[in-house]
Every structure is written in structure tokens, then in C-alpha cells.
Amino acid sequence: MTRTPTDDDNTKIKSVDASLDIVETLTGDGPMTITELAETLERSPSNVLAHLRTLRERGFAVKEDDQYRPGLRYYEVGNKTKGNYPLYVHGTEPADELADDTGEYVWLMVEEQGRGYYLYKSGGEDAVESGAYTMGSRWHLNSTASGKVVLAHMDEERFDDVIDTHGLKSMTPNTITDREELKRELETIREQGFARDREESAVGIRGVAAPVRGLDGVIGTVSISGPASRIEGEYFQEKLPRKVKETADIIRIKYNGAAAVDR
Fold first, then answer.
1. Domain extent listing, the chain
2. What is the CATH number of domain 14-76?
3. Phi, psi of 117 (to 5 degrees)
4. Which of 34, 72, 215, 257 is the most buried (most CB within 10 A)?
5. Which strand ranges, in their side-by-side order, compose the sheet holding 105-112?
């Protein structure tokens, strides 16, 4: 009888690893020649070229002059992938409404393999682009309001696994990098139902995030961010948390209603 493999198997395909190494290097370091890639990855030029040929044929790499860069096929895949997340499907319209109401940037984030990914952003008329957040970027969960919300709703075993794997990265002097201090912060988040970003992900930017709950737990977060000079006082302490929690509830109702119909 043939044994069905499980996800716990340690079997990996080295050629796939090699192709993904090339993709990640091109994405992070910009256009590169075959020689530059080979030197960076410590592979032979002929080996790198073989992988690049396959990536080009599938639209995942583009050659311009003597350099290679990632292809727009990733954009296509990424856009289709977002539709697999209920937070994106049911959250974009409420996020737009919150952005229009406050004038700030509103974000939808999900956790995957212990990191936070921003699926969507919507900017109001007063929104300020800091450059700290980008669509599709992945974040250490301890460094943002959304990430702390996710950590706050993990069980202790999962929390320890994420922190042991990814560490507590410091993005600014305000980022919480002490495990016990972070645990105290997460307890407060659970009690109040939202998290604050006190210039922890970017200097000069504050934010508020709330969990979006599905039928079986938290499916992601909705957050709002803006200049610290504007997000302060009662606006930061009371008004924005209330608005973000209201938006999270609206997304939850939309999602749970759709899920109930599908059952």
C-alpha cells in the first residue's frame, strides 16, 4: 500500500528551493545579472541560468539587457490569492468607509506562519504615506498594533513557537522586544479589545487595531494609522479605538452572515 505523505515529512525538493532563492534575491536586491546572482547565491552561472529559463517561460522572471528581475506574474498571482482570504472579501468596503470617515489610512492584515501580511489599504483624504507600511509586506508581529492583536489571541504554545521562530525584532526604540513586557501588553489588549501602536513600527506614526472574529476565531485585523502629531489625546485613547472596533464588528457580521449561508 502506498503511504500518503503528510505535511510533517521533511522531504524537500532542492531545485524548488533554488528557484525560490533566486526569486527572493531578485525581489530584495533588484535587477541582477547571472554572474551577480551566481556569486550572491554561491551557485554556478549555468545552474542559475537553468532556473532563470524556467522562471522566464512561466512569466516569473523578465530579462532586460543582461539583467533579470521578477515578472508581473507575481502581481497576478498575488491579486488572485487575496480572494482566498475572507478578511479581504468582506473587509474592503468597511475599510474604505472608515478611511473616508477618518481621513487616515486603514489596513487589513492577516497572520501566516507567524508573520503579519497587509492585504489591503485604503487612504482617506488626509492620509500621510510614511513608507513604513506597504501592501503585501510581512511584519514581525510584535512591532505593530495589528500584530500584537494577533499575538494576544494565540494560545501560549503557539505564542512561544512564533516568538522562538521569528524573535522580537525592534523596528523603532519604542518596539516592545522583551517577552515578559510583551505578555503584559497582550493581556491589556485582550481586556480592552484593541491594540495601540505607540510609534512602535515607525517613528512619527501611531495606530490602533482590532481583531476581526470569524466563526472559529480571529481571521485577521483592521487597523488605522496616521501622524503621531494628529493621533493623540482623546482621539487616540477613545475615538479611534471605538471606530476601529465598530468596523471590525461590521466585517465580522458580513463574514459570519456569508459563512452561515454557505453552510
1. 14-76, 83-262
2. 1.10.10.10
3. -125, 130
4. 34
5. 138-140, 115-123, 105-112, 217-227, 205-214, 195-198
Pairwise CA distance, residues 15 & 20, whole Å = 9
Closest-CA residue to 220 (of 248, 195, 201): 248
SS3 of 155, please? coil
Q: What residues have CB less than 8 Å from 161, skipping those under 6 apart? A: 114
Specify which residues 209 forms β-bridges with. Answer: 195, 223
Does the pTM exceed 0.90?
no
- Number of neighbours of residue 130 by Cβ within 10 angstroms: 15
pLDDT in tens, 34-63: 999 999 999 999 999 999 999 888 888 889
The full length of the chain comes to 263
Whole-number Å distance between alpha carbons of 256 and 216: 10
Three cell numbers written together for 63: 530579462
The CATH code belonging to domain 83-262 is 3.30.450.40
